[in-house]
Specification:
There is one protein chain. Helix 5 links the parallel strand 8 (146-150) and strand 9. It is built from 10 helices and 24 strands. It is α/β, with parallel strands linked by helices. It folds into 3 domains: 2-111 and 240-309, FAD/NAD(P)-binding domain (3-Layer(bba) Sandwich); 114-236, FAD/NAD(P)-binding domain; 330-415, Enolase-like, domain 1, CATH 3.30.390. 25% of the residues lie in helices and 29% in strands. Strands 1, 2, 3, 4, 5, 6 and 17 form a 7-stranded mixed β-sheet that branches. The chain has a 5-stranded antiparallel β-sheet with strand order 20-21-24-23-22, sandwiched between helices. It has a 4-stranded parallel β-sheet with strand order 10-9-8-14. It comes from Sulfuritalea hydrogenivorans sk43H.
């Protein structure tokens, strides 16, 4: 049986940060990176740009073969983890072989969540989670004349924009009352929706598909209200679910994701988890939450790697803060922090309907809880740090609301010294 000191399962941001953190403290311990993807590591966040053609598939890789060779990492591509035998420190692979480890990181990400719509197993549809998904969807979009996108999250809306731009008729179907629900508030969502409808898209919020069936051009969709839609391209973008089927029967505790401590350790001493499959403490609550965003995956991976290598510089995970950015039709939207307004909190908004500029800021006792904007310029990373550090903005609140980009950077230039 093959043996390794460190086994990292996954190949995106969390996994790569963990590899770097391990090698910073332990340059010699044997290290294996295992990924089910046949390609070199890439970020799922770049896939919409592969679909649109803005990014070439062979130009998106986060690391090359030389990186792994230089860091003495055994890279195993196209090999999935089938079962984790935590009781005997062994990973069983899809091909039946096993790797024995001393310490393991589960950074296995997530897969598209396919809704249980009657007839979905009888029709062809696309998803967008891997590079192969992106290249297939990009080719299909060029041929599409009439498309339906199920789900109005960021993945679905990116694809809908690409379809609009190639001249396809596009209908977006979303069960929630607004698009980008969970990312932006109703005012921001309405601005985003207007940009799509102004460009010819049809948005059906508060709508549910109850049946799918093959049709002459591709797919017939029946909505709950009896409306039918025809599509030659169907994209299912209704969310994701963490990849953790390989934990069946193991002692690793799970909920919505793999439950982890503030050092990313699971309920099993030599097993860690990070990224989109990990469920860690939220910054605004002691409850453990899923926060599947790139900055958090990077931070969690770094912490996990340091913990695995025994790095004395390790600091506890501060908790997850939501941060999402979205570019659409030459405009942009960004949300950072909590959208909940606790009792006694202050909400400041400004909205210029003519220009489509919108800003919403939530303060609690002078400290930033959340900030949301459409066509407003501010640094999401800086806003996140102001929240994490609980910086009192009372002395500069009016200036901050007037120009969050400038004032935020002024504050952080002092705090980071």
């Amino acid at each position: 049986m093959e043996q390794t000191k460190y086994l990292v399962v996954g190949s995106s941001h969390a996994a790569l940060e963990a590899v770097t953190a391990i090698r910073m403290h332990d340059p010699e311990g044997s290290l294996t990176l295992l990924t089910r993807d046949p390609h070199l590591p890439y970020s799922p966040t770049v896939l919409p740009y592969v679909v649109s053609g803005r990014s070439a598939p062979d130009g998106i890789f986060l690391r090359d073969e030389k990186f792994f060779a230089d860091n003495h990492v055994a890279l195993k591509r196209g090999t999935a983890l089938k079962f984790l035998h935590a009781e005997r420190n062994a990973a069983e692979l899809a091909d039946g072989s096993e790797i024995a480890y001393e310490k393991i990181l589960l950074a296995t990400g997530a897969s598209p969540a396919i809704p249980p719509i009657p007839g979905i197993d009888q029709v062809s549809y696309h998803v967008l989670r891997t590079l192969d998904d992106a290249t297939k969807l990009g080719a299909a979009i060029k041929r599409s004349k009439q498309a339906v996108v199920l789900g109005a999250g960021l993945v679905g809306m990116h694809a809908a924009e690409n379809l609009v731009k190639v001249g396809a008729g596009v209908t977006v179907v979303e069960m929630a009352k607004q698009l980008t629900d969970g990312y932006f508030d109703p005012v921001a969502a309405q601005l985003i929706e207007k940009a799509f409808t102004d460009n010819g898209a049809r948005i059906l919020t508060g709508s549910r598909v109850v049946k799918l069936a093959p049709s002459a051009i591709g797919v017939t969709l029946t909505l709950e209200n009896g409306t039918t839609l025809e599509a030659d391209l169907l994209l299912v973008a209704t969310g994701v679910r963490p990849n953790m089927d390989y934990l069946a029967g193991s002692r690793v505790e799970q909920d919505k994701g793999i439950l982890v401590s503030d050092s990313m350790q699971t309920s099993v001493a030599n097993v860690w988890s990070a990224g989109d499959c990990a469920q860690a403490r939220g910054f605004f609550t002691d409850a453990k939450v899923m926060n599947a965003i790139l900055p958090d995956a990077t931070e969690q991976g770094r912490i996990a790697g340091m913990a695995m290598a025994g790095d004395p510089g390790l600091k506890a995970y501060p908790g997850g803060v939501p941060l999402n950015t979205y570019h659409f039709f030459g405009r942009h939207a960004i949300s950072v922090g909590s959208s909940k307004v606790p009792e006694g909190a202050e909400v400041v908004t400004r909205f210029d309907e003519a220009s489509g500029r919108y800003l919403k800021v939530i303060f609690n006792e002078g400290r930033l809880l959340g900030i949301y904007g459409v066509n407003e310029f501010f640094d999401g990373g800086v806003m996140c740090q102001l929240i994490l550090r609980r910086v009192d903005l009372s002395p500069v609140k009016e200036r901050f609301v007037a120009n969050p980009l400038l004032v935020g950077r002024e504050l952080m230039s002092k705090l980071w010294r």
